[in-house]
């Protein structure tokens, strides 16, 4: 389908206009995929800058992720960003996935090393014949065609980073390898985001860093995601939400309010946009978007 505006994400992010994007998680079955498509169709009228669909743990949903991304490219007005990791595949397999994306007209990719195959906390072991670092994946993708490549960033540092300065150095390496933008993992304090931007600049990295936002609609679930990404759920968040644990509706309302407050602080401070982790549901994302006064 025809898409208005610049054809490549680098053009949009380089224009200075704020970007607003949505990320979906891969469904485990056909029923989950139908629910995902409901969310996609409900969010499509908001005209986001881009949308992406992640891989499941260990890359297990790679085939479904690629297929859904291809459908978004061919059946909607949305700009899909293809998801790509180093997990569970050699270089030949990575090249094949990149080729599948390109064949569907997807030329914007979000490239990550991925979580250790053994799960969080286990040592990282590259796949035989595969890649070890995200910077290598960035360089490979850039060598395969005219792709806009994004990477992950961590406001509180990657769980395996020796220090925050070392984490910023890795982000700068990915930029030197050809990454043109970054999206952060979830976080809860605007000051953590702005501190990351300052560290990145000090390390020589000046690519746009888009903050990743996850509304707290389920406290246990968000704590789990925070643990996986190395983020901490601040006391200010838990103090506000814990009393509402037995009232799901009130907790959800408070979680959306917290997300709106965070987004307002980020945009007021000059963040280049917002990347919503939707959890494959559109309602909370649409409420936050509306509260920020953003129109399609």
What is the 3D form? Answer: globular
Provide the succession of SSEs: HEHEHEHEHEHEHEHHHEH
Quaternary organization: single chain
Percentage of residues in DSSP E strands? 5-15%
Uncertain stretches of 5 or more adjacent residues: 1-6
First and last CA, distance: 18 Å
Strand segment tally: 8
CATH topology: TIM Barrel
How large, in whole angstroms, is the Cα Rg? 18 Å
Number of domains: 1
Assign the CATH class: Alpha Beta
Backbone structural class: alpha/beta
Residue-averaged pLDDT = 88
Largest sheet: 8 strands, parallel, barrel
Task: Just name the CATH architecture.
Answer: Alpha-Beta Barrel
Give the helix/strand layout.
Blueprint (H helix, E strand, L loop, with lengths): L8 H5 L5 E6 L5 H14 L6 E4 L8 H14 L4 E6 L5 H13 L4 E5 L21 H10 L4 E6 L10 H14 L3 E6 L3 H13 L6 E5 L5 H11 L5 H7 L6 H21 L4 E5 L5 H9 L5
Helix pairs in contact: 5-6, 6-7, 10-11
């Amino acid at each position: 389908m025809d898409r208005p505006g610049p054809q490549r994400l680098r053009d949009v992010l380089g224009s200075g206009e704020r970007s607003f994007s949505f990320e979906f998680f891969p469904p485990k079955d056909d029923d989950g995929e139908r629910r995902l498509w409901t969310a996609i169709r409900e969010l499509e009228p908001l005209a986001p800058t881009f949308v992406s669909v992640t891989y499941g743990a260990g890359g297990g949903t790679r085939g479904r992720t690629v297929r859904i991304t291809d459908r978004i490219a061919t059946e909607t007005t949305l700009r899909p960003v293809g998801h790509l990791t180093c997990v569970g595949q050699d270089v030949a397999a990575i090249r094949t996935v990149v080729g599948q994306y390109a064949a569907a007209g997807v030329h914007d990719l979000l490239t990550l090393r991925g979580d250790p195959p053994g799960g969080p906390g286990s040592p990282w072991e590259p796949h035989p014949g595969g890649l070890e670092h995200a910077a290598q994946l960035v360089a490979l993708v850039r060598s395969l065609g005219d792709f806009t490549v994004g990477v992950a960033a961590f406001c509180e540092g990657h769980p395996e980073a020796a220090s925050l300065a070392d984490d910023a150095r890795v982000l700068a390496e990915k930029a030197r390898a050809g990454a043109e933008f970054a999206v952060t993992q979830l976080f809860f304090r605007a000051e953590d985001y702005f501190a990351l931007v300052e560290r990145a600049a000090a390390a020589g990295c000046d690519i746009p860093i888009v903050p990743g936002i996850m509304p707290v609609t389920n406290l246990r679930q968000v704590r789990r995601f925070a643990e996986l990404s190395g983020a901490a759920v601040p006391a200010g968040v838990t103090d506000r939400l814990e009393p509402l644990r037995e009232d799901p509706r009130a907790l959800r309302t408070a979680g959306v309010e917290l997300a709106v407050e965070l987004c307002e602080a980020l945009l007021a401070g000059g963040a280049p946009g917002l990347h919503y982790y939707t959890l494959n549901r559109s309602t909370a994302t649409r409420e936050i978007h509306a509260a920020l006064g953003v129109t399609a």
